[in-house]
Amino acid sequence: MRIVVKVGTSTVAHPTGLMNIRQMEHLCKVLSDLKNAGHQVILVSSGAIGMGAGKLGLKERPRDVASKQAAAAVGQCELMYTYDRLFLKYSHKVAQLLLTADDFTHPDRRANLEQALFRLLEMDALPVVNENDTVATEEIRVGDNDTLSAYVAEAAGADLLVILTDIDGLYTADPRKDPDARLIHVIPALTDEVMAMAGGSGSALGTGGMMTKLHAAQIVTAAGIDMVIASGRRPEALYDIVDGKEVGTRFLKNPSV
Ligand code: GLU
Q1: pLDDT, tens digit (0-9, with 9 covering 90-100), for 117-164
Q2: Whether the CB of 207 sits within 6 Å of ligand 1
Q3: Residue 26: strand, helix, or coil
Q4: Where do the domains of the chain lie?
Q5: Is 78 near ligand 1, meaning CB less than 6 Å away?
Q6: Rounded CA gap, 61 and 49, in Å?
Q7: How far is the CA of 131 from the centre of ligand 1 (A)?
Q8: Which class is domain 2-251?
C-alpha cells in the first residue's frame, strides 16, 4: 500500500513547543516497520512553526507573518534533523519536500513535483512534506497541513491517508464540551449532517481543526482514497489502521471513482 501519514503539531511537540520525544520516536519506529513490511510511506509533518517557537523561547505561536516565517525556518531544521536521525536508526533515508499551493495547481509545477515524488519512492526514500512556510505568502499558501496532506495523497495516487491528531476521531459533538459525544467509526459519505459535526476547535500550536480534516476527507474520498483520523498519542495504532481494523474514524472512498 502507498500510505500518506499526516502528523499535527500536537503529535510532534508538547504544548511548550518543545519536541515530544516519545511520540516522535514511536512514530518513526512504526513508519520504518511499515516500510520494512513493503508499504510505501509519505509523511506530511507539521510542527515547523510550533517547534521553531519553542526553540526560540517564544511564549506562544507567533501571530505576525515575519515571526511565523522565522519560526518555521528554525523549526523545520529541527524537525528534519530529528526525522533524519530517528529514521536512520532503522536504515531509512528521509527526503525533505517543502511545497506551496502552486506546486499542485500549476500543471508544470505539479508534473515536476510528481516526478520527484515518484522517483524518491522508487529509490525507497521516505518523503517528508511540509508547506514552505518561510516563503509562502498568503496568496500561494495551502494554509493548513490537513489540506496539504490531501493534495499530496491525491498527487501520489495513495491508497490511504491517515491524519494523526490530538483527538481519537470524529465525534457526534465536541467531546471536550459534551459528555454524550460519541466517536463515529465509519463515515460512508460526507453528508451535510457529517460536515456540521466539525465545530472549529484546534490546538494552541497547530492550525487546523476538525473542519480542515473533513475538507481533506472530501478531497481524498472523491479521488478514490480512504482516509482515517486517529489519535497521534499511540502511533502503534497505524498497524491496525493499515490492516483495516476499526481505529478512529474511517472515511470511505467514493465507490464510483
Ligand atoms: N506548516 C505548519 C507548520 O509546520 C503547520 C500547518 C498546520 O498546522 O496545519 O508549522
Answers
A1: 999 999 999 999 999 999 987 777 898 999 999 999 999 999 999 999
A2: yes
A3: helix
A4: 2-251
A5: no
A6: 7
A7: 7
A8: alpha beta
